[in-house]
Amino acid sequence: MIARALLSLLLCCVLVYAWVEYRRSPVIALSSVVASLAGIYFVWVPSHSTLVAEFVGVGRGADLVLYLWVCISLIVLLNLHLKLRAQHELITKLARSIAMANVQSPAPNAPRAFSVEVASQTGLPPPAAGGHTSTQMRDQTV
Amino acid sequence: MQKPAVWVICPAFNEAATIASVVAGLRRRRYDVVVVDDGSTDGTRHIAAKVATAVITHPVNLGQGAALKTGIDYALSQGAEILVTFDADGQHRAEDIPRLVRALTEQRADFALGSRRLGQPRNIPLVRRVFLFAATLFTVATTGLCLTDTHNGLRAFTRRGALALRLRQDRMAHASEILAEIARSGLRYIEVPVTIVYTEYSMLKGQRTADFIRILLDLFAQKVHR
Q1: b/e string for A101-131 if b means 16 or more Cβ within 10 A?
Q2: Does B170 sit within 8 Å of A82, measured CB to CB?
Q3: Among A36, A108, B153, B198, which is most exposed with the fewest C-beta within 10 angstroms?
């Protein structure tokens, strides 16, 4: 009875997790809901797991649970992968705005050199004038 | 009629060996060139800084797709009317750009895509040819665009075209993403024959054929997770 209660509690946690994650990734959330509901059901009605197992041709209920576990792990893995991607998108945005704030525009005879427009957007002195930039830096530190 | 402001976007990752000659070739033709140094460690940006109109440096390596987007954003902010994407490894020829630009201005297209099939390919290796054929089939199947060469880094967009692209793929899947975005935009596209020069250097730097698995994974992940 204790084992059943514990397992149910854990699976309920998965349900809550799925609810929280639903907005971010509905596919992941829905698969977790299906998996955990099936889990809760089999925890309380273990005999049915054997029936289902026999029906799908797995043999024993315990084996079925093992296979389900593998499936859940894979879903979690996919979710982690997606989270990493989301994080990477943030890094990209961050790196891009850093890069855009430090445009080097060296060629003096360039048709369109570092424009006043960009300088005002980034709030930085035009890096085109090399010496000029360093004087400004010194002014700021003094 | 005044010549349109053409900006060439050169994403570069550790291209110190070729960047100077590639950019100088473009500058000789009076194009504005923005080099996006994607976190190189070989001093690419210092070399580029001597010749390019502008050099933008990613503080860390993000991938070619991200570098292209950075360059496109910058060129748009500088009032570019025509944007050209051009590989920094020397596999493209600056002589092909006027043809792409003409395709945009005279045939009223918003996207001009270079095709090595229509041009004269210079020693494309067999493995690469099989891979490119598979990539073309994949593109026709997923986007419905009718193209002969789907993964060519030499392209030109009008300003309107560039503004219509929403690019989120940082790595190599951007080539497929650009095509998907062109299809979504519903704007006119055209293919223009270009010549790709396969050198030992560009082959070494280029995609390994196995990378396409990663590209498929990237595209799949974007479908699952918006």
Answers
A1: eebbbbbeebeebbbeebbeebeeebbbeee
A2: no
A3: A108
Contact across the interface for A103 and B54, Cβ inside 8 Å: yes
Q: Closest approach of chain B CAs to the CA of A82, in angstroms?
A: 7
Contacts of B77 in chain A (CB under 8 A): 117-118, 121
- Residue in A closest to B75 by C-alpha: A112
d(CA B107, CA B89): 29
Q: What's B210's DSSP letter?
A: T
Residue B189 pairs in a beta bridge with B111
Q: Phi, psi (5° rounding) for residue B48? A: -65, -35
pLDDT tens-digit profile, chain A (142 residues):
788 888 889 888 888 888 887 887 788 788 888 888 888 888 888 888 778 888 888 777 777 778 878 888 888 888 888 888 889 899 999 999 999 998 988 655 444 444 444 444 444 444 443 333 333 333 333 3
Which one of A89, A103, A112 has the shortest CB-CB distance to B56? Answer: A103
Closest alpha carbon to B194 in B161, B157, B148, B127: B148
Q: Is B47 on the interface with A (CB under 8 A)?
A: no
Angstrom distance (rounded) from CA B103 to CA B110: 9
| DSSP assignment of chain A | -HHHHHHHHHHHHHHHHHHHHTTT-HHHHHHHHHHHHHHHHHHH-HHHHHHHHHHHT--SHHHHHHHHHHHHHHHHHHHHHHHHHHHHHHHHHHHHHHHHTT-B---TT-TT-S-HHHHHHHTS--TTSHHHHHHHHHHHH-
CB A95 within 8 A of CB A118: no
B 160-189 near A (Cβ less than 8 A): 168, 170
CB atoms within 10 A of CB A95: 21
Q: What is the rounded distance in angstroms from the CA atom of residue B160 to the CA atom of residue B110?
A: 7
- The label of the residue with tokens 């991607």 reads A85
Q: Which two tokens stand for residue A36?
A: 């955990």
Q: What are the counts of helices (DSSP H) followed by strands (DSSP E) for chain B?
A: 9, 7
pTM: 0.70
